[in-house]
Each structure stands twice: as C-alpha cells, then as structure tokens.
## 1
Amino acid sequence: MVESLHLESVTTNTVNSLEPLLEELSLVQKQGFALDNEEFYDGMIAIAVPVLDPKGHYHGALAMHGPTVRLDISSIKDYYSDLRSAADQLSELIFSV
C-alpha cells in the first residue's frame, strides 16, 4: 500500500521516500505511538496513540500537538502514558456492550 502513496514534502522534515517511511512505520508499531517532528507544519510537533477495539484493530487516534517554542520532541514523549490511558478509556467506552 505505501508504494502507491505520493509522498510530497511540506516541510524540511517531511518523510518523503519509501524506505524512511517504512522505517518510521516499523518504529511506530514497536513503540506504540507516533511522533510528528515538524513533518507537517514548521514549528509544530505532535504525539499520537491508536484507539483500538478489543481485538486490537485500529479505529482512530488520540493526539496532542504544540508549538516548538513550548515543547520539544523529547519532552512530548512524557505525555505518552496519559494519552495511552485516555485512548484505552475511549476504547472501553466505545466498544463496551
């Protein structure tokens, strides 16, 4: 699927070729969250965690972002635990029967 993507740079940090994208996707899968290091908008960073159903299928993401004048890419990782907890609570609310 990723081979069919048209990867276009919007900032100097945008991942715009196949091999780095696949490496990034592998890292995201391993660590359980994704980071945006000014890849979409200069001066903005973000962290996102998946919202999963009880079978582990992806249904959405919970994210936070902020300007680099207030956050840096290493400190934004400190929000992972709270985001993961909130995403798990969302999953519980959405998929409880």
## 2
Amino acid sequence: MIIDKTYFINGELYIPNANDGNVGSVSTNNLDTVITRYERQLLLDALGVELYNGLETAMGDLESAAQKWKDLVNGSDYAVDGESYRWDGLKGNAKDGLLAHYIYCMYLRQDEIDYSTTGMKRNAVENAVRASYTEKYVTAWSNFINMYQGENTVRRSLRQFLEDRESDFPIGAFKCYGNVNRFGI
C-alpha cells in the first residue's frame, strides 16, 4: 500500500479511531481493508495492468527503484517545453493527496450504512443529531477529481503528469470519474 491509516488521523480527512492502536478494532480493520481494495482499484483504473504491475514491483523496494517510480509515488518538480510543473505524487503533499481523498470517499460510502442480521441499518446516536455525510463526501470527491484528472496549470493532476511523462508512462485506457453534487446527481 502506498498510503496508510495515518493519513486519516486529523484534518479534513479525519476518520475517528483510524489509528487507535488496537489491532483488532473494527474501525482499524475496516480502514485497512478499504485502503487495500480501493487503492489497487484506482491505480489499475489510472495506469492499466502493465504499469500497475511495474509500480507494484517497484514498491517492493522503492529506494532502489527507477526514478520514474519514485517520482510517481513521492512527487517531483519537472519541466515540459520550458514550463515548470509540480506533481505532488500518489502520496500527496502533507498526506493530502489523491489516494487519500479517494480512500476517504470510499470509506464514507461503506461506513454510512451497516449490514446486520436483521437487514440494513444506520446506528442511532445518543446526545447528538445524525447528519448526512454528503457535504464531506462531495468536498473530498471534488478534491480527488481535481488531483486525479483536473486541468491544473502548475500543480499537475495524475492524468496531466502521466501525459507529460508519456515516455515513462504510456497510458492506454485512463478511466475518468464523474463529478458528484450535494443532491446525489
């Protein structure tokens, strides 16, 4: 995995008990599962099978991997046709990257409703009023879309980085995602 639970212990992507230290805790295990599943899914959607397999091999020993893999994961400053650009990497700047925003959205979707032996349910809370997760989801999703496929000038999206470095990362079927809004449309 490129990111871990520490991306969600504070800030705008905060998930309660994300890194509580209790190895068997439900929230810790669920978050690990979501990270493992959806990080792989997103990277396959963006890179395709061949590049994904190359990245997976490089992640085994990133220190010794080719510079292109280090740049993809950790980010880099680079120039194209005399113009300077910044790619924050899959890890993102200060644990605020596209993978973290995508994983956060997937976690929110899974955590909203539980499946129990009596059917689908939302947990009741005492001394609080339940609120919709939609506002947080839409904000995180919009940030993800911008970092993943947006048209940015200096700070490049993943799609722009891959296009700028086409000789290193020949992309085929880059999957684009759609926007969402507060109305679920």
## 3
Amino acid sequence: MDPVRDPEENEPKQLREYADLEHARVIEIGTGNGRMTWRYASLTKSVAGIDPEFDRLKEAVDDRPKNFAPEVYFAQAKAEALPFKDSTFDGAIFAWSF
C-alpha cells in the first residue's frame, strides 16, 4: 500500500461511494501488487485479483495484512481469458490498467 500516491484515500472513498461492495464477490482486473486490493477488500465478501505478472502478484500476497478476514485470492491471468465461470462475481474493479 502506497500512501504517497493517494494520501487522502480518495480511491477507496470513491469505490465506497459509487459501488456496493458490501458482501459482494469482486474481481479486480490488473491487481498488480495489491496497492488497491488491501484498501477495499475488507468491505467485500471476497476478492479475486488477477494480473498477468506473477512477480506483482507475489508482492500482493507478501503485503497481505495480518489477520485479514475476507477471502482474497490472486491468480495469474489476463482479462481476455478469465479462469472463472460465468456469474462468479457481482462486480469488477478495473483501475490503473490498460
């Protein structure tokens, strides 16, 4: 988590304001090092973060807060070929990706 990029916590505030994350099953496309994941995941039922770069996913796992309750999973994948069944998620987060 990099507080320098968003010291006012605007990104998670916007997510909470515009997305109903409570008890939602969320997929985060382009999760990278989990910079955003750990800032909103506690609001959800579960999060599956995908990214094509394994090293970035390892960083996300390594940064997992201790005693973190919601289910958070990471998978090496691309958005063009998701390894999940249809209707697995209630919503998607796609930020800072291209």
## 4
Amino acid sequence: MNAPVTYSLLCVDTIAQVARAYTDVFVQDEPMTRRYMIDPDTFFLYARQYVQHCADASLSIIAEDTISSECVGFILCCDMAKDISTLWREMAKFLSFFPDAVAIIDALKQKCLHRDMSHPGTTLHIFQIGVRDNYRKQAIATNLIHHICGHAKKRGFRQIVADCTGPVSCHTFKRCGFQVLGNIPYNSFSFKGRKFFAGLEGGISLVMREL
C-alpha cells in the first residue's frame, strides 16, 4: 500500500531533511554524481547550504510522507537568470568537485538555449529532481513536475527547462509536456582533453515546456 504523500513549497523548516534526501538520492543514484564517488557527509554539508538558497527563492517543491513527515521527493529550482555558482561563497567550491558535470551542462545550455531565456523572471531552471528509492513508482516525480509548473506559472515564468541525466527522468518530463531541445551523449563529451564519462550509458538532455 502506497504511503500518503503531500506536496508543498520548500521552506526553512524542511531544509535539513530535504538536504539529506538530496544527498541520499544523488550520491547513490544520479549517474554523473555517482561517478565522482564523493563522500556523502561532505556532499551533505554543501547540499544543506544549496537547499537553503532554494528555500529562500521559494521556487522549489517537496514531497513528504504524511505519516512520518519524511521528505521523500524534491524538485529544486532557480531562476535561469541567476548563476548558481554565485549563490553563496562556498558554491563555487562545491561545484569544483564536479568539473566535468558542470562543463557538460554548460555545453548543453550553450547549444540549446536562446539568450532571451536568461532575463530575470522568464525561465525557471529545474536543477534536480529526485525521489527516494522506496517511494518510487508512485507518480511522485510526475506530481512534483505538475506542481512546479503550476507554481512557476503563478510566479510569472514563461517557460521551464530541466537537465535530464538519464532516460527515466527524460521520459517523465516528456510525459508532462516537455520537449527535448538537445542531447549530449556521455561517451562523446570531452573536457580538458579527457572523457570522464566514457563508458557511461546514455547522455544528458535538456528539456523545455512553455507555460
């Protein structure tokens, strides 16, 4: 029997549990992050600060188990006009742990996005979406996407873009009305003379939906 789940804006009261869920899901399951083999405790320290800034922006949605109050899913977003590397002093250091991942995402943006999407309040950027393993196959990711689309439209955004690092997330976004703008296969990407993601199946896709 599926646990009852409720959806709400990420707020300061839930920062710690969302950061823990974000750490658990991405360190274990996200293909690019997993390849770096970063220490979960180190990841969590930076994740908590990042989630704090997402909460301050009031642009992210979380899913909670109504019985345990555990964060079981999240969709973390920022205004496309804001460079996340400048969100706080330690963000650049956090991103430095994942240079190839940052580079492939930047390359995909340069390949697919128009300059006018960087105007403040125009484009919402979904950076991460995740669901805890034991809560999957309950349409939680789909519901998170629908909730964020509704919230973004109320806030005046005209479109949403998202980075999909695997076929499951890409398929989920496409079912929610997103279109694929472009893709970079992991095996083909080279950064500073090395193919860090060589042997990793699939690729990273950029998807978009008009609101």
